[in-house]
């Protein structure tokens, strides 16, 4: 016996973590790392990630048959090249018509286009019998020089004589004139600033459900935490593991 130890058992450091000593799920859950792209910690800034891909495989549609096939030289990217060729056909049938000869034309009138000639005016020729005799000097009249509507002279002021009016005569009946009540009344709002207008209406009914509703005293305004700062709260839990040996005092 050596001191307080009994037997051959001696306390030693455990080789690994014991699950019974932890109230949490255990060390299998770890904090996400701050490197890489997959499984990155959401509370850390993530740098841009770049991926290196391999060479793309050749496209099936772009692969040619290879050098074992011989492509004709006249085959182009737009089709087969065909050189222009002349076709030999029979002589077409010509319909012979009687055309005018050189003696049928008058060449005398073309001298004015070749040689210099005096100016001449050509126009349609009418028969003298179709013309009507022109008007003589006595047929025209000179414009008038008097009155308001003159052609080329300044018109003098014109005065007109009007008949006498029946109003305001010496024998007019003044009792037949309209009095002050005959004219409509003009609203004051027409020439002055308009005053506000109020209307008296009936009392409306209270809409909605008429059941008893909670009053202001039914609400706890001290527990509002959405728009007001909340004081820190403390909770009490198990500080140590439940498997830890408690302190025994005599």
From TrEMBL:
Give the top-rank taxon of the lineage listed in the UniProt record for this protein. Eukaryota
One Pfam family, short name: SHIPPO-rpt
For this protein, the parts annotated as crossing the membrane are none
The record's annotation in InterPro entries points to: CIMAP, SHIPPO-rpt
Q: Which GO terms describe its cellular component?
A: cytoskeleton
Its recorded name reads: Outer dense fiber of sperm tails 3
Source organism of the structure: Cairina moschata (Muscovy duck)
